[in-house]
Amino acid sequence: MASANSNANVYGGDEINAIILDPGSLSTRIGYAGDDFPKIITPSYYAANGKKHIFGDSINVPRADFDIKPILKDSVIEDWDAAIEQYHHYFDKELALDYKEQPIFITEPIWTSAKQRQTLVENIYEKFDFPALYLGRAPTCVSFQQGRPNCLVVNIGHDTVSVTAVIDGISLLKNSMRTHYSGQYLSDQLYDLFLNKFPSLTLDAKYKIRTKTPTKYPEPPVFTPRELPKNITKSFDDYQKELLFHEMKETLLEAPDKQITDENSESYSKDENRRAFELPNGQSIELAIERYEMADSLFEPNNYSFTNETLANKYSVENGSLTIDSNQDDYRPLKRARKNESNQSTPPPAATEPSVAETRGLTQLISHVLSTIDIDLRASVAHNIIVTGGASLIPQVTERLYSELSSLNPGLKIRLHAVGNSSERVNQAWIGASVLASLGTFHQMWVTKEEYDEAGPDKILNQRFR
Amino acid sequence: MSANDILDVLNIQRDNSGQPSKKKAKHGNDSTNLQARQTGMARELYNLLGPNTPPVNLTNANNNVGVKDRWKSKATPWTLKDFKPKSGDPLTLYHWVRGSKELLEQDNIQVQQPYFFTKFSTNVDIPDFVDEETFNKYMEDIEVEERKNSELWEERRMEKERQRQEKLAKEKAARDNEKKIKGEKGEVTGISESKKDASSEVTSQEDGSQSEISKESTQAQSEEASVIPESKTNAIPWTYKETKHLFELCNSFELKWHIILDRYEYSSHRSLEDLKEQFYRVCKRIYSDDANGNPALIDSLGSFSKSKEVERKQYLERLLKRTPAEIAEEESLVIEARRFELAAKKMLVERSNLLTLLDSPQTSQSVQQYQSSQGLTNLYNNLMIMDKNQKRRQLQNQSSPSHDPIPPPIPLAASSSIRKERTFQTHLQQHLSNLVKQNQSQGNKNEISAIHKLLMKRLTAKEEEAYGLHYHANERLTPGVILRSSQRLPGLQQRQSVLKSVTSVFTELDIPTAGGTSWRPVMPTRKAMAKYDELLRAVVALLEVKKGRDKLEAEIQLIRSQKGLE
User: Fold this and answer.
1) Which tens digit of pLDDT belongs to each residue from A154-166?
2) pLDDT digit string (tens) for A220-243?
3) How many angstroms away from the CA of A38 is the closest CA of chain B?
4) Looking at the domain covering A183-314, what would its CATH class be?
5) Domain A5-139+424-464: top CATH class
6) How far apart are CA B320 and CA A409, in angstroms?
7) How far does B544 lie from chain A, in Å, by closest CA?
8) Is the pTM of this model over 0.95?
9) All residues at 6 or more sequence positions from A363 whose CB lies less than 8 Å from its CB, including other chains
10) Is there a contact between B95 and A15 if contact means CB atoms under 8 Å apart?
11) Record: contact B263-A378, CB cut-off 8 A
12) Which ipTM did the prediction report?
């Protein structure tokens, strides 16, 4: 007890080395609670040839007939078999866990449906031997990482941008919003740009090139290709291209300080704003205003429509509203009946009305969520906006957000908090979960299989995993 | 090889006298200790230091031993120990605890301690929810009560409405009348174009104000209208199931209302206030049925008003919806208002100063008595004493009765009366004789000096003057002899700027000064000095009065112009 006492004096911690699992749409993070960084950061993709599955960074090795498949979509597990296999791979082979020794903490986005949550919980209980588990909402974890019980978590991730208010360390589901104008969207914008502006460019991914000689864009690339196994799948090539886009996003993009219009586009296309990027095949391209336009599309997706049809079809108009289905199905008809009734008298809040067809960029999304939050909380929440996620690392994004939010909400004092360390910002939810799961007071929250079976999924999912 | 050897090789004479410290150090050091400490390389190095022995021994052997000891000592044992975070739950977790396994086991056998953090797990105190029957009864009661309330409210509202209508009608009538009159006037005198224009302008203004008023009234109406349906949406009745759900949520989310609303799954059209209202009123019922319910708690539960809460939120909302221009304007207005306040305060202070200044000599009595020099000096003395008394009172608040007798403060109105003057003189004489008596008691008792004799006599003013006698009533005199020409006039205690204007007045009036910066008459006799001082004060007072008058006049002008505009 001595250690518990002395720890309690400092930070109320009691470390039991629980396993933290934070599956994201781009990468999955696994590690021990109490650590300041995940032990394993691995892509949320796997390579499969029908018989064998390969996980981790070795999926980047070109192999014949191996398809690259995603495990998650929108931070929600889609491919259950692969997910379970991936977790088994890391728990058994990499961490060599004795499951009995510690419980597991899994982060989840706020939009997972009750069915998905139930599947996840039951799968974990069934397939792994953890004594207990806990599902934590990702925004709650982020709020714990920052130590701010009341905040607005703006997560600009790979698949989605989500804005969630966290009150007293509990995420508000009804006010939350999500769009897909995020990291993947930027990659697609980049791809669209290549199709338009550099039509003759062959996007050769890194794995194809052995040696290269630098050339400038209109000149053809000069490189010697690598010897590759036959039958490299298209999905592998696409995945490698995605990685290339990822690199370009990291090095090239920069958010303009205000919306790009015809008047100010001049200043962004100046020579000083020109950056060169060398493609893996040695060809270098130069971008100026495009760098800003890409990042601007996060804020004003309306102004940047895709020219390529398949890409355009991928993104429908989104106003960010989320429909989180209730878990108590028997009450639903009641709810619906009332909705129709009241639609005549008072218009319901915009968040529940999906008919409002309107695209919301990042700023509008945040500002709309702010306006739906109860007035008593709005000021404190606006003062604690946490910006996290990989795409928020684009230079000047937080500055642009700050200036736009301040001018949109003159009555509120806006303050943005973004972790300076880039790898911390990408893994913020994991770190927060690590903090949460090493608190002494948290250990009464773990749910065992017995309790789950006894109380039933409804009660546990809604009132225990809050 | 030591430093000595090197010195020998280089043929340098050692100056032993210059190194007394080394000798001392050698003597002082325990030779065995030294040898024990320095062996091999260390000793050679030490020797190379030569005469430059460091005053403090840098190598501390004890420290090393300490570290070594620590290395060698056994590490504190830590044990991976199982614990149960929740009592009555099968879940067992493991954490590291300081102490050996045996010790911990022993401890554990002695006392089965609950988990340290269990005490932080608390629940809110919420009454247990009732069964359906009682709930229905409660709801009926509540409904009846509310209907009564709403009727009352409706009545009050109607009353208000009527009053407003009446007021509006009255105002309208009054305005119509005015308009008519104005219109007539316009027609009657409307020969010249300009006047017609003016009247039409006035009427248009009237129209504007009227429309504003009507807008206000419609706004008020709409506001009320928005309140009414909200109370009517209550029409969606609370079922037993729904209320039970609410109570469950309240229990599991510890009355964090925003989260309860977020997780509320029944109707998406219940507002936070609806939930609160239902919860509080049902709680109130449950508690008041409970025999040992806390009456203060029941009262506080009843004090929740949904309409007030909604209103408060509307106000807050409006506050947040201000545009930046409005915020800036508001801020500038606040700053301006503060400035005005400050100016007004300053003005008030100045005016009161001025009034006291103008007040102090009571003008109700005749000025006759002051026309003689005697009268004036008396007045002056009286004022001086008063002034001093006031100052002293402020300073020490009469905490310690001072040794020298101070004449009692003379009331303003009576200050100049002869009777008081006489009492004052007798006071003075008593004081002086007391002093003399003291002197006598100290010195030779029998010898009564001529001065004393003189003092004992009651002298007339004329005699006093002839003898050159002067009572320094309570003037503070510096000890020793001083020349009157170097005496500082009390009237000179003014600000430099005031003094400057006083000089200009003096030159204007051709009053000779000694010139330059020295402020005294050419012939500084006592009387002349006194007069001069008086004059100085008078001029200062005059200047101040003039300043005050100018200010007042300007103010009057301002007010007049404002009134004129209206």
Assistant:
1) 999 999 999 999 9
2) 888 888 888 888 889 999 999 999
3) 20
4) alpha beta
5) alpha beta
6) 8
7) 50
8) no
9) A299, A400, A401, A404, A405, A408
10) yes
11) no
12) 0.81
